[in-house]
Amino acid sequence: MSRQTDVADDAIQEAQANTQYHWAPTPGGLYLWTRNECPIGDVGRRDDTAMNCFAYPMLLAVRRGYLTRDQAARILGDTRRSGDKAAYAFSGSWVTQLWVDRPGVPGDYWRPRKGDLIFFEGIIGGFLAHVALATGGTGAANKGNQCVSFGEGRTTMGQATVNVTTIEALSHGYRSVRFLSPAWG
Questions:
Q1: Domain encompassing residue 75
Q2: Which partner from 19, 26, 97, 124 sits 20 to 30 angstroms from 46, CA to CA?
Q3: 185 part of a folded domain
Q4: Number of folded domains in the chain?
Q5: How confident is the model over 132-161, as pLDDT tens digits?
Q6: DSSP 154-174
Q7: What is the Cα–Cα distance from 102 to 106, expressed in whole angstroms?
């Protein structure tokens, strides 16, 4: 097991348990935690400590002790950058290609590994339009690459359920999909 797969396993367990958190369009509660203004156990538990999709995997890594307060603060600060630099804040190891099917290349070659972060690039939000966590598995009848997602499609604050879906199902309407191994991997 690795740190990266531990975080993915935690996300899968939360999805299986239909865990809910309060969603917001910002990393709010996690940011408050980095400033010592909120206990980690309160992140995502109330409207005033709500979080977004890219704060969710960070929360799991913090709970495991794989991401420190200072590291989380640096990542959150770096997400304010534009373009792919916002997503690059999570690690320095982008997969250099977009996720596409390529003739003659084995089907899993350009696929995220368990625990990789998946970035869906949108017109609004750039590479942080939506972020999910790869499970390393495939969907029903081997259709689709599974991921754990939190808050996809939301535009207003409120409860959102952690769920297992596929990258293909989430990718509709996004400009591109990229993935990387997170800093805690």
A1: 3-180
A2: 124
A3: no
A4: 1
A5: 999 988 766 556 789 999 999 999 999 999
A6: --S-EEEEEEEEEHHHH-TT-
A7: 8
